[in-house]
Amino acid sequence: MNALAAERLAQARAWLRQDPDPETRDELAGIITRAASGDASAAADLDDRFATRLAFGTAGLRGALGAGSNRMNRVLVAQAAAGLAGYLLQRGSRIPTVVIGYDGRRGSRRFALDSAELFAGAGLRAILLPRLLPTPVLAFAVRHLEADAGVMVTASHNPPDDNGYKVYLGGADAGSQIIAPADAEIAAHIQRVADVGDIGLLPRSESYEIAAEEVVDAYVAATAAVAHAPYGVQEMRWVYTAMHGVGWETLSRVVRSAGYPAPRVVDAQRDPDPTFRTVPFPNPEEPGALDLAFERAREVDAEFIIANDPDADRLAVAIPDAAAEGGWRRLTGDEVGLLLGWRAAQDAPHATGASLACSLVSSPGLGAIAARHGLDFHETLTGFKWISRAPHLVYGFEEALGYLVNPQTVRDKDGISAAVAMLRLASDARVRGTTIAGLLEELGAQIGHYASGQVSVRVEDLSIISGLMLSLRADPPASFGARAVTAADDLSRGSGDMPVGDVLRYRLGDGSRVVIRPSGTEPKLKAYIDSRADSATEAAAAVADLETAVRDLLAERG
Predict the structure, then answer these.
(1) Nearest to residue 425, comparing CAs of 353, 345, 487?
(2) Domains identified in the chain, total number
(3) Residue 328 sits in which domain range?
(4) For this structure, is 156 an active site residue?
(5) b/e burial code for range 76-108 (CB count within 10 A of at least 16 → b)
(6) Residue 368 falls within a domain, yes or no?
(7) 173 and 241 share a domain?
(8) Domain containing 93 — which CATH number?
(9) Model pTM greater than 0.85?
């Protein structure tokens, strides 16, 4: 046995001794036995599990469930909770308050209970939400309860075997997700806990609180107030799917309180199911994820479909389209984002310097909406940790189906409040004798027709991504197909008041734009493409040409 294999075995045995979970203990014990007997695949498995740790960053923790420092499990969660407690205790003089939420994924409730016990054991006031609930309810609770921090146990729309640990900060951060330097400071505290080497030594207490139902009631009331139903929409037919997640209970209460007609529900996907049995990948952006919703919509002759992802922080919308396969198509995140931004701009209090914001990979059409309505506009790095911090924000969005329509109560993307805002848009259109598709045409007539596309390169070896980014920086492209590059920005060097990021942005002679960056959550290099034209057909054609040009460039550089 070589030295590396012996080191991995020692790490695994030390981990096994402190693991309180019988399932992951049994899993790891079997791998240790096989690796110790010379099984090469087991030794490689140990190396994958212990060569590194799941990194704690601005998205908190997220990864596959299983034993080891490079997996999501009760040991890693205990270290994260104790590290976060240490950070909060060091940060202020008063006793910190932390609120904890969890969704319906495997392990979520257990991870939340461990966190509550460890926060209470460390001397913090720990408040556990009363049951599994959407991520936006936790984000709301941080502000509503004036907590110092919040933790949501969720992996959002990741595959079924993943889970995660998402952190928000109160106080000056106003309930937004963590950013630098807080992420690195929390990570350092977590590492100090891990270096002790035995989570059994961490103090625990069952003196945590269970939040009253008033917290959920307050979220429902605040979200229903985003957009009450107009008169005369009780016959509106729409379909809803919760994608096997936690959205249905809360959304149905909000819809009823706001006065909208109840949806026709995709029953097979209504209730939480950690196996996500009807979808291989529980992300409404993925091909096939909305197939059951399309089927239900055809059955009831629906006017539109609304879908939440499993933790209900994202929103997808689909509309009838005779040109699409099966007669239905999902709107892009940019299309939904511009419609909701148009609504927000019309309602915004102009005298206060109100602003719209989106990430730099989202449609520049939001800037055109802001300009038309005399509002400020901010473009940020990707992620609602940045969007939510835009000054005087009244609305923000990101193309990956994330929308922040109620910043006074929730400083994160919220698929439920976005659903209510979309219901109001659809209702108003119906009263005027038009549809969501008609609204898109109206908006295009005002600001021009914007189209967007995306090219993703998935890799097994992350060095390929860094190599591609290095090549693009060393030898910047002069054109994408027939379209010349007129300006190139490397955000790793900073750009205006935007934080530094691993992003390359190219502006083209016809007004189109290409943005290239590594994915923050997956082993992918992503290129985002935007174009504007006088018609939707022309804009879509320009995007299609650019997608081909980007694929050719990345293949050539790869």
Answers:
(1) 345
(2) 4
(3) 233-446
(4) yes
(5) bbbbbbbbbbbbbbebeeeebbbbbbbbbbbbb
(6) yes
(7) no
(8) 3.40.120.10
(9) yes
